[in-house]
Amino acid sequence: MMLFSALLTSVGINLGLCVLFFILYSVLRKQPGNADVYAPRLLADGKSQRRVHFDLDRLLPSAGWITGAWRPSEAELLSVSGLDAVVFMRIFIFSFKVFAFATAVGVFVLLPINYMGNQLSLDFTDLPNKSLESFTISNVGDGSNRLWIHFSAMYVFTVFVCYLLYAEYDYISSKRLASFHSSKPKPHQFTVLVRSIPPSPGKSYSDVVESFFTEYYPSTYLSHCVVRRKNKLKGLISDRAEQSSVVVKEVAAAFVSFKTRFGAAVALHIRQGIKPTEWVTEPAPDPEDVYWPFFSASFAQRWLFNVAVYIACVVLTVLFLGPVLLVQGLTHLEQLEIWFPSLKSVLEVKFVSQVITGYLPSLILQMFLSLVPPIMMIFSSIQGYIALSQIGRSACFKVLWFTIWNIFFANVLSGSVLYRVKIFLELKNIPSILAVGVPSQASFFIAYVVTSGWTSTASEVFRLKPFLSSFFKKRFCKASNEDFEVPSMPYHREIPRLLLFGLVGVIYFFLAPLILPFIVLYFCLGYVIYRHQLLNVYAPKYETGGQFWPIVHDSTIVSLILMHVIAIGIFGLKKLSLASSLTIPLPILTLIFNSYCRRRFLPIFSSFSAESLIMKDRSDEKDPTVSAFHNELATAYEDPSLMPASYTGNNNTHTTPLLHTL
Fold it and tell me: Quick one: pLDDT at residue 48?
C-alpha cells in the first residue's frame, strides 16, 4: 500500500507542475506571437490584437486572467459559447456543491472515526510512514457501533445528491426551453431528414420527394434538397475560370423543409410510408453540424460498421488491461522486487520508492488514457451518424464507460487479483468483492486525482501541444501569423473525466474521505480554467441544446448505486449485518427517483412540445424576415464539397486544386 509520505511526494510534484504551468502561461500569453495559441477565439472575433510594443509587464507573471474568467455572468457565457458550454460549467458547479458537502461530513466526521479505529493496530507517532489505508473504513473494528455513523452519513449524502440532481435537471431543462424560445429561426427546426426513399421508374429521387410531400403535406411542405454524392472526376481544369466537372449521383435521402416547426415535427413523429423501412424520418441537424461522408452508405454497410465498432471497443478494452496491470505492479514495491530483483537496491531508496508508488502509476495510466478519446471519435464517426453533435455525444458515451471500466473497475479488480487469482471464481459475491477491492485502491485514486486532475487541468490552460505546433510552424514552415484555426471544446474528452472523478468521489465518500479535499480542489481549479478557455480559446463547432446533461445525471445515479452495493458488502464484512440489510432499500429508492426524473425531464431533451412549437411559429408570423429565411432553406443543406470553388487573382494553373473539397 502507498504510504502517506508517498502521497505527499505525489502532491508536491503535481503542485509544482501546476504552479509552473500557470507561471509559463501568464507570461507566454502576453507575447505578441502567441495570441493565436492562447486567445484564438478573441483574435478571430477581432476582440484581441497582437501587441507589438515592448513593456516590462510582458515578462512578469500575473493572475489577472483568473478574475477575467470569473467575472462574466452565465448569460454572457451562454451568448458567446452556447448552452452546451453552460451545461459543461454546471457540471463543475453541481460537483462542487456535492463534494463540498461530502468534504464537510467526510473530513470532520468520518475521517477521525476511521483514523482512530483499531483494526490495523496503528502507531500514531509515525504518521508519514503509515499506509493510507489507516484513513479508510478498513481501520474501523468489526462490529463497531461507529459504523452506524457511516451508515447514516451515506443515507444523508444520497438524499442530498438526489436533491441537487433534481434541482439541476430542472434548471437546465428551463434553460433549454428558454434558449429555444429566444432563438432566431434555424434551418434544423423546420427540416427533417428523410432516408430510404423508394425509387420510381423514370423519376429522380428529387421528383419522388417533391411528388410525395406535395401530395401528403400540401399546406406545410416548403422545399427539399436531395443528398448527392461525388462519383468521379471527368476532366481537368483548362483555365482558372473553369472548374472540373464532377459526376454526382443522387442518394435515397433528402432534407425536407416545412413552413412551420410544427409541420416538421408532425412529419418527424408520424410514420410516412406503408412499409416501415421506407420514407424513414429523423431530426435534421443544423447545416454546419452535418457530417456528410456516410449519407451514401447503405443500411447493410452502416450495420456492419456498427458491429465492427462494438468489436473494436471490446478489443481496445482488453488491450488496455496491460497498462492497468503495469500500473498496479508499480503500486506494490514488494511485487516489483520479485519481478525485477536487480532493481531491489534502487527501489529501497526512499524518494525513489515514493515517486514510483505515489506519482508514476497515475502518470503512466494518464498517458495511455490520452489516446482513448481520439480513437473513440474515429469509432463514432464510422458508425453512420449524420451530425457532428451525434458523433460527439456517442464518443462521449464510449469514453465515459471505457474510462469507468478501465480506470475504476479494472484497477479495483486487478489490484485484488494481483495476489488472488481465485477472485475470478467469486463473481457471484459482487458486493463482497468490491468491498475488499475498492478500499484497498483508495491511495491509487487519490494520486490519480492529483495527477490526472490537477496537472492535466493546469496543462489545459498552458496548451503545450498547440504552443509547440505554432512555434515550429512559424519557425520552420514559414506559416503566416494570420494562419490559425479556432479549436472547439472537446466535450467527448472532458465530460467523461469529470464524471469519473465524480464517481470516485461518491464511492469513496464514506470509504476513504481523505480523497474528498483533493476532488473539491480539482473542481474549483477546473471551473476557473475551463471558463477562461471557453471565453478566450474555444468556439462552438456544434450545439446540442444541453443534451449532455442526461449523461451526467445517469452517471451520477450509477455512482450512487455502486456506493450502495459496496456499502452492503462492507457492512457485511464488518459483521454489521443489520446495517447491510437496511442499505438494500437505498439503491431501489434511488432507481425510483431516477425513473421519476426520466419521465419528468428527459422528454424535454428529446423533442419540444406542440405548445412550444406552435407558440414559436406564431411569433414568427410577426417577423418580416421569416419569408427570406424560408427562401434560404432550399439551399441550406447543399453539400459544401459540391459547391463551386472560388478562384482569385493568381493565374498560376499549376497550383489550382482539381476539386474543392470540404
Answer: 66
